[in-house]
Amino acid sequence: MARLPRVHLAGVPEHIIQRGNNRQVCFATDDDFAAYAHWLKEYSEAFGVQIHAWVMMTNHAHILCTASDNSGISLMMQSIGRQYVRYFNRAYQRSGTLWEGRFKSCLVQQAHYVMAVYRYIELNPVRAGMVESPFEYPWSSYAINAQGVQSALCQPHACYLALADTAAERQQAYRDLFKIEVSAAMLADIRSTIKSGMALGNDRFKQEIEALTGRRQHKEQPGRPKSKQKQN
């Protein structure tokens, strides 16, 4: 079956995940993390993509970003993928594929959902039991968004800027968000949409994306369609 093209829309936030093939390790040392971060910065700038939040785990990476045109994210991820595979294979004297096929992605509604994805991404190391606080994990955007650590890679989304009027107040408001757990329902929505590639948001947002792209954004109901009743 032919693969469906991804849905990318300029100006609409997008959640991306790139996994190692068969969940194999793709970041083993600090040099590996730094190399991926370097190319993420280089190619996000080259293709007009703003990076809002990110985390690099041992076998996958999450990114929340917004592109200035419909092709920017695909071009960015393809370029990072090729460069990093060459680096990784050379560093570990291996050959062949590294990534689990194509990266996965979904569009994200700004109101309510964008900040949930920020938290979902930066809490990955905590959910994995690697650290107790997201601040303890060095390879994510949490220190930038919550503590004001300077970075040329991360650019705030409008929803983040709307948290407060000053940088210090925004950072405090952002830290306060992490005192409340992401709900089980939201976690399930985030995971299912990144897996399916369908939009993360309410019904109205999904309908708008369907109208703009011609791609279905609602899951089909399980079971066979009902057969028509025979006329008497």
UniProtKB/TrEMBL annotation:
Renumbered residue ranges of the record's region Disordered: 212-232
A Gene Ontology BP annotation from the UniProt entry: DNA transposition
Gene Ontology molecular function terms on file: DNA binding; transposase activity
Location of the Transposase IS200-like domain: 9-124
InterPro entries in UniProt: Transposase_17 (IPR002686), Transposase_17_sf (IPR036515)
Cross-referenced Pfam families: Y1_Tnp
PANTHER family: TRANSPOSASE IS200-LIKE DOMAIN-CONTAINING PROTEIN, TRANSPOSASE, Y1_TNP DOMAIN-CONTAINING
Name of the protein described by the UniProt record: Transposase
Lineage: Bacteria, Pseudomonadati, Pseudomonadota, Gammaproteobacteria, Chromatiales
